[in-house]
Design brief:
CATH superfamily: Single-stranded right-handed beta-helix, Pectin lyase-like
Oligomer: single chain
Shape: globular
Largest sheet: 11 strands, parallel
Number of strands: 29
Number of domains: 1
Distance between the termini: 16 Å
Strand content: 25-35%
């Protein structure tokens, strides 16, 4: 196991240097407590990135959409991330990833985590930012080349990630805190969130903005998660479809007063809420489904029973990220 420590007691004092030094077959990296101000790309397969303490092992950066190229043009959302994963079978555990660029009304989008690879596992992590905290989707070309250099890994690539390409890539989140405001969990990938806390900042906004391809059976599924925040009561909307036909489902989730009574909301006249957006067995203050958007799905028990982790993430390889290896 490779050890990263700011005080020099490990093999490396920086995380990216440790990743770059791993063999192509991957490896394990233990990150000692401390704040590491780095912009990081995990581009090799089979990498296990583990923090010593979830609250005290912090990766932080301040990239934002309004950062500029030398010619004065803005770089945009997809160059702003603090931590990007482009490899396959990457596990990130027990640490905090922050984008501290600031409020989106001033800096635009500022991504904490850009999960571009397949079979990613995130356990006991805190992902913290403002607008657009977590993106699960392909590498956007060509502008990302400047940012990550040769660290493309084997991630999917797309000219316009907004179009939500049909994808086989998957990400799994367990016991994580994800904090942000406007559209702060977004993208086209198939993702399962197990027992996570979604925390809406004071600004309010949309917890999710999926752009699932219409031919893809599942987008984001939140299972036994808790939705809360510090915004005004009702200022946190469950989600809005970034693309027509996007899919977002909340199963057995607890929703407090910060969640909007109407649940989901249309993005515009074309990107509207459909039966691919829905809830099942919601608990808490916002459990009453009578107030919800009229088009969203109130899943039946039979429908919900068909939405399982193996069906959503299993794929042709039968991936089971909930089953920890010995």
């Amino acid at each position: 196991m490779v050890i990263v420590a700011k005080d020099g007691s490990g093999g490396y004092t920086g995380i990216q240097a440790a990743i770059d030094a791993l063999p192509e077959t991957g490896g394990q990296i233990l990150i000692r407590s401390g704040e590491y101000r780095e912009k990081i790309v995990v581009h090799k397969n089979h990498v296990f990135l583990k923090g010593e303490d979830m609250n005290r092992t912090v990766i932080a950066w301040n990239g934002c959409a309004k950062d500029r190229y030398e010619d004065g043009t803005e770089k945009g959302t997809f160059l702003s991330s603090t931590l990007m994963t482009t490899g396959k079978d990457i596990t990130v555990e027990n640490l905090t990833v922050v984008n501290d660029a600031g409020d989106g009304r001033e800096v635009g989008q500022a991504v904490a985590v850009y999960a571009a690879g397949d079979r990613g596992i995130w356990r006991k992590c805190r992902l913290i930012a403002h607008q657009d905290t977590l993106f699960c989707g392909p590498i956007r070309l060509p502008n990302v080349k400047e940012d990550i250099g040769s660290r493309f890994g084997c991630a999917e690539q797309a000219i316009r990630v907004e179009d939500g390409p049909l994808t086989g890539s998957r990400q799994y989140f367990e016991n994580c805190l994800i904090r942000g405001d406007v559209d702060f969990i977004f993208g086209p990938y198939r993702c399962w969130f197990e027992n996570c806390t979604l925390f809406m900042n004071e600004r309010g906004g949309w917890y999710t903005a999926t752009n699932t391809n219409g031919n893809q059976p599942f987008g984001f599924v939140f299972h036994r998660c808790r939705l809360t925040g510090e915004c005004k009561p009702g200022a946190g909307v469950l989600g809005r479809p970034w693309r027509k036909g996007s899919s977002t489902l909340f199963l057995e989730c607890e929703m407090d007063e910060h969640v909007a009574p109407e649940g989901f909301a249309d993005w515009d006249e074309e990107r509207i809420v459909t039966k691919r957006c829905g809830e099942w067995r919601t608990t808490g203050v916002r459990a009453d489904q009578k107030t919800r958007h009229p088009a969203q799905n109130r899943l039946t028990d039979k429908e919900a029973e068909e939405i399982t982790l193996p069906r959503v993430l299993g794929g042709d390889d039968g991936w089971r990220p909930d089953q920890k290896m010995a």
